[in-house]
Amino acid sequence: xxxxxxxxxxxxxxxxxxxxxxxxxxxxxxxxxxxxxxxxxxxxxxxxxxxxxxxxxxxxxxxxxxxxxxxxxxxxxxxxxxxxxxxxxxxxxxxxxxxxxxxxxxxxxxxxxxxxxxxxxxxxxxxxxxxxxxxxxxxxxxxxxxxxxxxxxxxxxxxxxxxxxxxxxxxxxxxxxxxxxxxxxxxxxxxxxxxxxxxxxxxxxxxxxxxxxxxxxxxxxxxxxxxxxxxxxxxxxxxxxxxxxxxxxx
Length: 250
Hints:
Blueprint: H1 2-17, H2 20-27, H3 36-69, H4 74-77, H5 80-102, H6 123-127, H7 135-167, H8 172-201, H9 208-231, H10 234-249
Helix pairs in contact: 1-3, 1-9, 3-5, 3-7, 3-8, 7-8, 8-9
């Protein structure tokens, strides 16, 4: 669990910093510009980190399923090799997802308007600037991103449902502990998938709230995820209480 949480925190740091420094600099400048290469880099890192986090959340749901439903076999099933494979697989899927999005975009002809109506470059907004018919590309992008998001979301729902159904036959104490664990997972999943679904449900239509959700998605949600998991973890809370008592006594 802690190995997967460490990797989730690392992806969250990457997701919250790939565009934030440039965005802060732009707030202080009147002329806000970005090179074509920088724009493509932002698209690549956005989809690589977001895709990797989607798969990592699925891996964490599987980890919780094994811990709650098969606790006596947990150490055998979730060994170092299995955890490493889940993390590496999440990164590979995220990178492949990003490359599949970018390979069709980087060679598009851009000869018209060059203003992206957002704080960073996102694929739907950049595709709209191309001087060619992008209908097929839009369908491919929606299929790719939609498949990634929906498959991850469905797998998470299946995992949580199986856990809750399994716990109906167990003790009430186990149910309470599992609900506390699942509450943190559901909160993170809601914060992660909520803005994504809203933004990409109509990716080629602009709404004023899209900018707010974009900031929330790439800055606040990645920063909240480790905090949510930390506050739901008894060992971490116990360590924090001991540290606070030690500071007070000194």
